[in-house]
């Protein structure tokens, strides 16, 4: 990746994470510049989801540091309520999209999108509604504003989830296998929304199983296995001419069917 | 069946049934606060506090309500605790049902998918905000139903305060059986009143449940 | 505040007798309510309405009215008709009460088992009755075990209520001692501790049974 002198949007330095005796992240370094789109691929258990969740502090790392736009995310020096305040503030700048959508079932689609700006930014109901409708329009679901999540398809749910994350105007979007739980015919509509974000130069980290999409949308692709980054390169290079044997083996298994 | 007798004793039993409702409603009300405090303690960061709440819940659930009632009413004065029978029934009922209710509330909260917590936290909501906006609204339905089950147990348990001479439904029924020698008539009427009370509770619970889970029907 | 547990020690043999009665009643009621509950459930599910509607009514009645009221009715009602010892009234009263609760559980588990297993068994050539006894009931029993053992744990605590109709379990035998020694606090605390210990043992037993039964479900 080309190094620039500006502050990276996301930076990881020597990140290590253990679950009991199992080390799932064995020292990860990563630098994501503003507007870049990074895909992270790898077999399940490679640590790619843990890495993404660590950036949001949903997993607490044991060693190393994570920075968001120059501000440190993990703060071992802060305890209890002080850390709570810190992390809540940091998280408002990150949008996270989950494999299983995790929409709030008791709230309408519009309320799902507007809850955070209203309660966390103190936005008044009128402006929040305007913002919410604008975002739902953007993901093509303005007509579902008053529906509840239970009446939406998987693809629609995930698009609402993206709108919900965007409502806080995040500096970076994290996608944790956003299309893995979807029926094949619903993947495309979500991919299209993500591509739209890419065209608007949103900084994105995408953990995915969709090789074709990763290759198409991202500026940089990383292959992870066993808690380390095995290989990272431009997508064209990584997918066409993988250098490491493990990468070659993985891609042979997963590039069989075009997505 | 002696219907004249039944008509004659109905006012007495209705009055007593009201005492049953009164004592149960009060115990439920205070029990809810005790339960909330227990849930709060059980999720505390301070280990002894957590441990204390667990011990309390275990002991209350592990001993008979009847013995708790006798202990507080007859044994209470030995430790300076003098309560009139009605108050004693409310207090012991509340402390007893509170232990069960704390487990019900905890169960309802834990039944909410952990992804909900993650999604809320990832937006930047704190623990309490997440509880308030995301978890509790979703736990409410199950919570209402479990509390409803406990409310019915509370109504049935309230019959035991007849032992410490609170003139509630079972006390009145027993006295009337003794004075009229018509157990079937008295039993039929008093059973009917318990059934009415319990079905009223079930109706209220169902109403609240539907209100709390409206979103699942929309 | 001064506690004096010496009267409790002095009357401990009496209390011990009370524990014996408590355990005896518990055992009798457990056997009666589990076996009876299963029979009632089978009859309720597999007979004509004339037979099963009254049964359903009694299950419902026992579950919607308080135990103590039922006990008073049995004690004064039955006591009027025939001369039977209080302890029998107590066992019958508690037994019927929990028979209803257990039957309610069995009805649910038998239904849940028979939905798939009934056809499978009939397709093998088993008749209706054999299917019931060889296939449905054993599975329904194992499925019912967790709730069943829960009911039995609650039931043992309810034995204390039998003191109200003069049955010599722990609370009743202590009441005499209390009236002589004026030490209610010490006696009731002791009874609570004993019940708590019994409860702990039953919970341990429940865990053990469920672990063993888990293979069979």
UniProtKB/TrEMBL annotation, chain A:
Lineage: Bacteria, Pseudomonadati, Pseudomonadota, Gammaproteobacteria, Oceanospirillales
Its membrane topology: Peripheral membrane protein
Domain of life: Bacteria
Gene3D superfamilies documented for this protein: P-loop containing nucleotide triphosphate hydrolases (3.40.50.300)
GO cellular component: plasma membrane
Keyword Transport: yes
Chain ranges of the ABC transporter domain: 10-251
Record localization: Cell inner membrane
Keywords carried by this UniProt record: Amino-acid transport, ATP-binding, Cell membrane, Membrane, Nucleotide-binding, Transport
Chief location category: membrane
Pfam families membership: ABC_tran (PF00005)
Family indicated by similarity: Belongs to the ABC transporter superfamily.
GO molecular function: ABC-type amino acid transporter activity; ATP binding; ATP hydrolysis activity
Protein name (record): Polar amino acid transport system ATP-binding protein
Automatic annotation (TrEMBL), chain B:
Pfam families, alphabetized: BPD_transp_1
Entry keyword set: Amino-acid transport, Cell membrane, Membrane, Transmembrane, Transmembrane helix, Transport
Gene3D superfamilies: MetI-like
A molecular-function term among this protein's GO annotations: transmembrane transporter activity
Biological processes, Gene Ontology terms: amino acid transport
Parts of the chain that traverse the membrane: 23-41, 147-167, 187-209
Gene Ontology CC: one annotated term: ATP-binding cassette (ABC) transporter complex
Source domain of life: Bacteria
Keyword Cell cycle found: no
Signal sequence extent: none
CDD domains cross-referenced by the UniProt entry: TM_PBP2 (cd06261)
Domain ABC transmembrane type-1 span(s) in chain numbering: 17-205
Listed SUPFAM superfamilies: MetI-like (SSF161098)
Coiled coil: none
Membrane topology, record value: Multi-pass membrane protein
Subcellular location(s) per record: Cell inner membrane; Cell membrane
Keyword Transport: yes
Location, primary (coarse class): membrane
Family to which the UniProt record says this protein belongs: Belongs to the binding-protein-dependent transport system permease family. HisMQ subfamily.
Name of the protein described by the UniProt record: Polar amino acid transport system permease protein
Automatic annotation (TrEMBL), chain C:
NAD keyword on record: no
Span of domain ABC transmembrane type-1: 19-206
GO biological process: amino acid transport
Localization, UniProt: Cell inner membrane; Cell membrane
Source domain of life: Bacteria
Pfam families noted in UniProt: BPD_transp_1
Keywords: Amino-acid transport, Cell membrane, Membrane, Transmembrane, Transmembrane helix, Transport
Segments traversing the membrane: 20-45, 57-75, 81-101, 159-179, 185-202
Gene3D superfamilies per record: MetI-like (1.10.3720.10)
InterPro entries xref list: AA_ABC_transptr_permease_3TM (IPR010065), ArtM/GltK/GlnP/TcyL/YhdX-like (IPR043429), MetI-like (IPR000515), MetI-like_sf (IPR035906)
CDD domains in the record: TM_PBP2 (cd06261)
Presence of the UniProt keyword Cell membrane in the record: yes
Gene Ontology CC terms: ATP-binding cassette (ABC) transporter complex
UniProt main location, coarse: membrane
Annotated GO MF terms: transmembrane transporter activity
Membrane topology: Multi-pass membrane protein
Family the entry assigns: Belongs to the binding-protein-dependent transport system permease family. HisMQ subfamily.
NCBIfam families reported for this sequence: HEQRo_perm_3TM
Identification of the protein by name: Polar amino acid transport system permease protein
Organism annotation: Halomonas organivorans
